[in-house]
Amino acid sequence: MMNIGQASGASGISAKMIRYYESIGLIKQSRRTDAGYRTYGENDLHTLRFIKRARKLGFSLEQIRELLSLWEDSERASADVKAIAQAHVADLQKRIVELTEMRDTLSQLAHTCSGDHRPDCPILVGLAEESNHECDEHMTH
């Protein structure tokens, strides 16, 4: 058995996040000593490491909740796990496209800016134009 600080060090998840995961029911409430201190065992560490790895892969807390449920279910169908992973891959792909578009737009705006002492700034003009365009789009829909 180990305390929350030791569990944090062994899992790579901060004590604050461990307490948060407990508070939202992502992990079960830890055992307590007579003095009220949290204690963790090897199974708890496996779960925390699972969460750490899933977060590193970008899964949401709700997706992790589903994955943990499937991980703990010996009767699970691997198709259920695969469906969650494929949905996440599709979401990541969409985000990659969006981030690439943002990078390209900002790179182009930065390229047009001389970056000197003058107040003219194509970046600010470009941002203002985009804001006005978005307002127009929202008003027409």
Describe how the helices and strands are arranged.
Blueprint: H1 4-11, H2 15-23, E1 31-32, E2 38-39, H3 42-56, H4 61-72, H5 78-112, H6 122-140
- Work out the radius of gyration: 23 Å
Q: Tell me the structural class.
A: mainly alpha
Q: In percent, how helical is the residue content?
A: 55-70%
Q: What are the secondary-structure elements, in order, as H or E?
A: HHEEHHHH
Outline, from the CA principal axes?
Answer: elongated
User: Mean of the pLDDT scores?
Assistant: 90
* Total domain units: 2
**Beta-strand content estimate:** under 5%
Distance between the termini: 59 Å
Low-confidence stretches: none
Q: How many strands, which pairing sense, and closed or not: the largest β-sheet?
A: 2 strands, antiparallel
- Number of helices, counting only DSSP H or I runs of 4 residues or more: 6
Characteristics:
two-stranded antiparallel sheet, Multidrug-efflux Transporter Regulator, Chain: A, Domain 2, 141 residues, elongated, 2 strands, 70% helix
Structure explained in plain terms:
70% of the residues lie in helices and 3% in strands. It is elongated, with a radius of gyration of 23 Å. The longest helix has 35 residues, at 78-112. It has 2 domains: 1-57, Multidrug-efflux Transporter Regulator, Chain: A, Domain 2 (Orthogonal Bundle), CATH 1.10.1660.10; 77-141. The chain is mainly alpha-helical and 141 residues long. The protein has a two-stranded antiparallel ribbon. A hairpin with a 5-residue loop joins strand 1 (31-32) and strand 2 (38-39). It has helices at 4-11, 15-23, 42-56, 61-72, 78-112, 122-140; strands at 31-32, 38-39.
